[in-house]
Amino acid sequence: AVLAVLFASLVPETVALDIQCKDPLFETHWFGRAGLATRASSGFETLNAIPTAKSGLALCPQYNLRASCCSQRFEVEQARHFQHFRQIIFPSMFVRIRKHRMSVADVEHTAVFSVASRVEREQLSL
């Protein structure tokens, strides 16, 4: 009975320690790929398991010499994903926005728009 009480008192601390580096924003980087736990590389970098003090952080210099979940290896991973967003995703978002604005502007060239009341024209225009 004493052993069970001792174990139960330690579990919350272990769980609290385990979730410190589990930011939902980086959920895919909590663990390595399945089956790669025994290899030197997991295929992509993961967050530290527990906060540790690091130096030489370039993307997050405010965490240098402070306990954090980031590491220099993880910063490389962050930079890779940011570059992908900046070079691929962000430009495609602008293309979609431009196409959407053009399609909204094209409404002014329809028969329905030409017979619309002033209020309807205001609602249909940019």
Task: Please explain how this structure is put together.
The protein is mainly alpha-helical and 126 residues long. The chain is 50% helix and 3% strand. A two-stranded antiparallel ribbon has the order 1-2.
SSE layout:
Blueprint: H1 2-18, E1 52-53, E2 67-68, H2 72-106, H3 111-114, H4 118-124
Antiparallel strand pairs: 1-2
Give the overall pLDDT as a whole number: 78
Indicate the radius of gyration in whole angstroms: 26 Å
Main beta sheet? 2 strands, antiparallel
Q: Count of helices?
A: 4
Structural class based on helices, strands and sheet pairing = mainly alpha
Q: Approximately how much beta-strand content do the residues carry?
A: under 5%
Oligomer: single chain
Unreliable segments of 5+ consecutive residues: 11-15
Question: What helical percentage do the residues reach?
Answer: 40-55%
Instruction: Give the total of beta strands.
Output: 2
Q: Tell me the overall shape.
A: elongated
What is the H-and-E element order? HEEHHH
Short key terms for the protein model shown above:
126 residues, mainly alpha, two-stranded antiparallel ribbon, 4 helices, 2 strands
Short description:
The chain is mainly α and 126 residues long. The protein is built from four helices and two strands, in the order αββααα. It has a two-stranded antiparallel sheet.
